[in-house]
Amino acid sequence: MNREAAETREGEVVKLSDPVSLTIPSRAEYVLLARLVVSQVGQLAGFGPEDIYDLKLAVTEAVTNVIRHATVDSFEVEYRVLPGAVEITVKDAGGGFEVEALNPTPDAQGGFGLAVIKSLVDEVKLESAPGGGTRLRMVRRAAAAARTEIG
Fold it and tell me: Which of 21, 52, 61, 90 is most buried when burial is the number of CB atoms within 10 A of its CB?
């Protein structure tokens, strides 16, 4: 397999062709590990501190949702550097649920985690089915890339 070599220099954006995948035990003490990895991936992508902070919050919410709601021993977080963006996918093999049945606005029953994630990233795709596990894909574009696209 041919992989791109990555040299890191101040201000250089690194493009990685392969994702970084982390299998995490479904316990709260491992949330920090998921945050540390996304922080490094954000740095490799050339993100600034605010973008990295938002990525860390989004990952925290996503993995906390798995730990709270999926009955699994472990789950996977995949990180990928894209041109001007970072993609994070959180996958579990839990019981799943009907995505359409989710309340679109947070209430006393919950829903705050997904609302927070949607406010922190540019794209969210949630896939799940009863008995089929859940997959949450998030994409955050760098603030500089977003400004370039707009103006």
Answer: 90
Asked whether residue 9 is assigned to any structural domain, the reply reads no
d(CA 65, CA 67): 5
CATH number at residue 127: 3.30.565.10
pTM for the whole structure? 0.82
DSSP-assigned beta bridge partners for residue 123: 139
Structural domain count of the chain: 1
Residue 139 · residue 123 · CB < 8 Å: yes
Four-CA torsion 26, 31, 37, 41, nearest 10 degrees: 110
Chain centroid offset of residue 113 CA: 12
Beta-bridge partner residues of 137: 89, 125
d(CA 131, CA 116): 26
Determine the structural domain holding residue 143 and report its residue range.
Answer: 20-150
